[in-house]
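PROTEIN DESIGN WORKSHEET
SECTION A - STRUCTURE
LENGTH: 200
TOKENS:
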């Protein structure tokens, strides 16, 4: 089993990073043979989409950066975990650049008819997001449509989200109840994938 974890915050060792690690440790405790790839968006230096339409003429993206490797990770992963801080009711710019560059996968499937991703492979996706403020009247209204289309582009079942607010005053990694939820989520996500893949 392969797990791809994308840490979408530019801040290492803080809320999003520690929540993600707690989920990953929970999964490892349940599935000793799991292969985990954890990537930091701040290290990948993914450029934004150029809207050049080159991916409608040949498979892949003409920009030479870390996306070619990410396309392969999306294809081979069984579970895809993503996390981001909330910026202006949306996700981090670094993570959004990765999502926008998935236009190459969309084009490979629907324009070129030569999919870069195995469309028959079962995959599960989960998203964790944090926010500094206590009150968010719009909730995840701007976030979930983005993630929904992203996971559809890589033929992944969008299982759910976990939203932690108020982290400016109460860091998520200092809240016992949130860390406990993350441990439980690791088990839930793993069992969800097992059922989807027909293991249970």
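SECTION B - SEQUENCE
RESIDUE ASSIGNMENT:
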């Amino acid at each position: 089993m392969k797990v791809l974890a994308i840490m979408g915050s530019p801040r290492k060792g803080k809320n999003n990073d520690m929540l993600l690690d707690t989920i990953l440790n929970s999964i490892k405790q349940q599935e000793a043979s799991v292969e985990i790839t954890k990537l930091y968006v701040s290290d990948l230096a993914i450029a934004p989409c150029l809207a050049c339409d080159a991916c409608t003429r040949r498979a892949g993206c003409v920009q030479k950066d870390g996306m070619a490797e990410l396309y392969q990770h999306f294809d081979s992963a069984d579970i895809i975990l993503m996390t981001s801080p909330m910026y202006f009711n949306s996700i981090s710019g670094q993570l959004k650049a990765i999502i926008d560059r998935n236009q190459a996968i969309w084009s490979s499937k629907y324009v070129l008819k030569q999919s870069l991703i195995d469309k028959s492979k079962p995959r599960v996706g989960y998203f964790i997001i944090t926010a500094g403020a206590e009150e968010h009247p719009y909730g995840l209204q701007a976030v979930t449509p983005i993630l929904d289309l992203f996971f559809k582009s890589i033929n992944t079942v969008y299982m759910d989200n976990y939203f932690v607010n108020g982290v400016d005053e109460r860091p998520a990694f200092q809240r016992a109840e949130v860390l406990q939820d993350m441990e439980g989520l690791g088990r839930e996500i793993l069992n969800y994938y097992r059922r989807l893949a027909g293991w249970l």
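SECTION C - NOTES
Residues 176-196 form the longest helix (21 residues).
The chain has a mean pLDDT of 94.
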